[in-house]
Amino acid sequence: MSGMNASKGTEAKIVVVDDEPSIRELLVASLHFAGYEVETAASGSEAIEVIERTKPDLIILDVMLPDIDGFTVTRRIRQEGIDAPVLFLTARDDTQDKVMGLTVGGDDYVTKPFSLEEVVARIRAILRRTREHVEDDPVIRVGDLEINEDSHDVTRAGRPIDLSPTEYKLLRYLMDNEGRVLSKAQILDHVWQYDWGGDAAIVESYISYLRKKVDDLEVTDEDGTKHKVQPLIETKRGIGYMIRVPRS
Amino acid sequence: MSGMNASKGTEAKIVVVDDEPSIRELLVASLHFAGYEVETAASGSEAIEVIERTKPDLIILDVMLPDIDGFTVTRRIRQEGIDAPVLFLTARDDTQDKVMGLTVGGDDYVTKPFSLEEVVARIRAILRRTREHVEDDPVIRVGDLEINEDSHDVTRAGRPIDLSPTEYKLLRYLMDNEGRVLSKAQILDHVWQYDWGGDAAIVESYISYLRKKVDDLEVTDEDGTKHKVQPLIETKRGIGYMIRVPRS
DNA sequence: AGAGGACATTCAGGAAACCTTCAGACGGCG
DNA sequence: CGCCGTCTGAAGGTTTCCTGAATGTCCTCT
Fold first, then answer.
1. How buried is B72 (Cβ within 10 angstroms: 0-12 exposed, 13-18 middle, 19+ buried)?
2. From the candidates A118, A152, A154, which should be mutated to test the interface with B, based on the most B CB atoms within 10 A?
3. The pTM is what?
4. Which of A161-165, B42-46, B100-104 has the lowest mean pLDDT?
5. Would the N or C end of chain B have less CB density within 10 A of its end CB?
6. Comparing C-alpha atoms, which of A158, A214, A146, A148 is closest to residue B248?
7. Which CATH code of 3.90.1200.10, 3.40.640.10, 1.10.3210.10, 1.10.10.10 fits the domain covering A139-243?
8. CA A198 to C1' C21, whole Å
9. pLDDT, tens digit, for every residue of B66-84?
10. Share of chain B above pLDDT 90, in %
């Protein structure tokens, strides 16, 4: 699943609140595997109880809940002195005014249906900005390939690269799992929205696009000689894809 | 999330006084995240107690409170020797004479409904004038683009630029977050009033206005040659907007 | 070597995101 | 009261992206 560079500082505690079991499980599995400690709640009232008991570092909160809606839950726990940032889950067709004011403070939101990469990226961005952690670096590196999660910049050997949103998400997922083979199914599940109905063949197309932009470059050395960059994206036939600095 | 240049001197302590929980939360979340230490009070009497106890550097005070009004609160705490500046929150339809005399000393006011940028900008301006801090610079720079928070002047390559109030707030928010992509929702939440009910599409319009004034200029060099300025505002498709000196 | 399967590449249509402009509404100011 | 700058919503045009399909290439097993 979404295995990250588990190295990152202390593991954060996250509470997931959603009434749909499938969404809950999806998030729990991913986040747990990504190294977070996860608790869940299926309703607003349960959420308040769980949050006050466990004092999480971050809360993932569906705004549409059977009993108490997400905004009210937020207000209640804030009154109790809990100031953990909230990542709201909203339906795309929610009226705009409902979404208003959601991005103040450390809070943020994603619209359903989301892709896991979106959620994980947002969580990291929030935690990076919220926690005191001075050492937190918005840059992810694999060899001479870098992506900056703040500016969304991508560079190879210092040279800027332009990626489309989906290309960026795919590359980010690969880099987050450097040295680990990811199946096409895994990639589909993380980079594309969870309600995607299409074919896994689209992964091949996007790998191809990515390779052309990232691995098919010529750079000029200090001494003026041109040479191709080392390809970083490897195909593991029958298994999937992986990114890493190739072994000699 | 405003005032991101967290680097700024020592964190100031602020007391927020308002009887509406939603306003309180909005301000607490934003200011806390912006690096301020925040306490709250929901009434005039509570305000006096909290202010005398915590000795804040600045007070945000709604003039319309259920028990003791804001002016009286100010008078009382002044009698107790507390001279922290006050940022008053007033209703737009408050008669002019009520607002009169609010800006004496270090004090200032904003009208409800406000935008977060307005509040944060005023807070910074007040603290800049109040504190000894010699190193505080009212000028924000990105490349050859400068805005002066004291005079509200905007210049590009030395040339003055006229901006409308909303254009200025938008530019200021972008520059305060140089090199970080801001979503349209974030921009809406910070630059527009918190009770805004409209569409996020308005952000696109204002980005367009801003570009025409800021990024679509011709300047004349010392040697008489004309050339276009580098565009500083970048679109990150599917993510948002960002300002910075472009890479290479 | 050949067949079959897995992967790579390319392309075009449609969709989505974005840019720009404009007219009307609104409010401040003379 | 009328003018003027500003704000807002909407429309139209443009660019970029996504997706599915078609075709080509490489690997593997027999």
1. middle
2. A152
3. 0.94
4. B100-104
5. C
6. A158
7. 1.10.10.10
8. 39
9. 999 999 999 999 999 999 9
10. 79
